[in-house]
Specification:
With 152 residues, this protein is of the alpha+beta class. The protein is built from 5 helices and 6 strands. The longest helix is centred in the N-terminal third of the chain and has 22 residues. It starts with 8 loop residues before the first helix and ends with a strand.
Length: 152
């Protein structure tokens, strides 16, 4: 199912964790509608702004998949309102900075692990907070623990 010009439902629900563990990662109709919003309101505009393709690293996550990946208990991924992307042919930090300098209506944008960008939408009818953060693993200790730093 095509969600927008450049993004499909299959790529937004694909999960290596779900495949390895046998966890069902199928979204319901409301979550699919949210994924379509993510594509139309964030991913397509980001792709156009950056001028490069975006690889989806993680999109929708069923609650068990989210828990298995160490995701936040409040993760927008579980509602289909977020995607983690990797810009192809462009340094990720440069893409993060470029997107922050636009009027892109993200709720949260996080430069995570120096590897990908988390883009999240607010719930329908809620104004985007436009929170931008840097996330780094907390040394040493739990590999799932992150330190988040807000950037202005």
């Amino acid at each position: 199912m095509q969600l927008s010009e450049h993004f499909t439902l299959a790529e937004l629900v694909h999960s290596q964790v779900a495949l390895r563990t046998g966890i069902d990662n199928e979204p319901n109709a409301e979550q699919i509608a949210n994924l379509q919003r993510v594509c139309e309101e964030l991913l397509e505009p980001a792709r156009k702004i950056l001028g490069v393709a975006l690889k989806i690293d993680s999109g929708f996550r069923a609650p068990l998949v989210n828990a298995a990946t160490g995701g936040s208990i409040n993760s927008a991924h579980m509602e289909g309102r977020a995607a983690d992307v990797i810009p192809l042919g462009m340094p990720v930090l440069d893409a993060f900075r470029a997107l922050r300098s636009t009027e892109l209506a993200y709720d949260q944008m996080i430069f995570e692990c120096a590897t990908w960008i988390h883009l999240g939408l607010p719930a329908l009818g809620v104004a985007p907070r436009r929170e931008a953060e840097l996330a780094e693993r907390a040394p040493p200790g739990d590999p799932r623990r992150w330190i988040y730093t807000r950037v202005a």
